[in-house]
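Morning run. Coffee first, then this:
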Amino acid sequence: MIKLALSDIDDTLVHYGNGATVEAVEAIHAMQDAGLHFATATGRVASSIPHLLRGDQRASATTVCCNGQIVLLEGKVIAREVLPHDALVRVTEILSDEFGAVLTLYEEHDVSYGVGISDEERAACSDIFWPETGVRPVVPDYEIVKANVHVKGTRERMARIKEVLVSEVPELDFVYPNPTAPLIDILPHGKNKATGADVLRKALGLDWDEVCAFGDAENDLMLLNAVPNSVAMANAMPEVARMARWHVGSSAEDAVAGALRDIVQASKTGSMPSFMSEE
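And here it is:
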């Protein structure tokens, strides 16, 4: 029986560029009303999640966010990992010769800024940043949790830059959060959605076989590998689809909402949901 469902947000729980549907939020509530647990598992910061879930604080109170660096259980922080300062400085040094490849740091409430970028470069790269993204000359000397690298240009260029970063900055891990977004997420080495989900699972007193996870992109791979009942969206990257044990429809079809309803229905008889069938 599934007792905890974890879901990526962008292109999984919600169709990218949109918020959650009314049906999706109601399905999360149905999980909670049945005594089950739901958590988003996302690269986003916690403060941005309620907005994506129609402002619903209850639906967004438990989350594995910042790709597993922060875990909240019913609104309370139970785990928090920061990024090593010196490693972030080294990232800026590597990117200094790559016009349009910029380390971007985030604070609470999605305040973001590019580091070591000129006003000219910021203007030339306006299409890859949020409009409100600011500029800082150096990595600040305080704790940073969320960071990524924005890259202007082709996916091939992004892959090349990622390969260099992986080789030169072993204290950090670099993953794609989305098949099309012009950015690479940064994590402390060895930390990911799976390690965050493990913290949440243990806090809830659950075994892995009582957990399922929905995902679509590279930053979901470690989580889907850890969870026996892994679920790929129809719009998932090929490697995610290959790894997942189970498969549902696309984010555009609101497939996670339907799957959550299926989990709730199955819980009434202590069985597995119908979409988890070998047939």
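The chain has a mean pLDDT of 95. Good start to the day.
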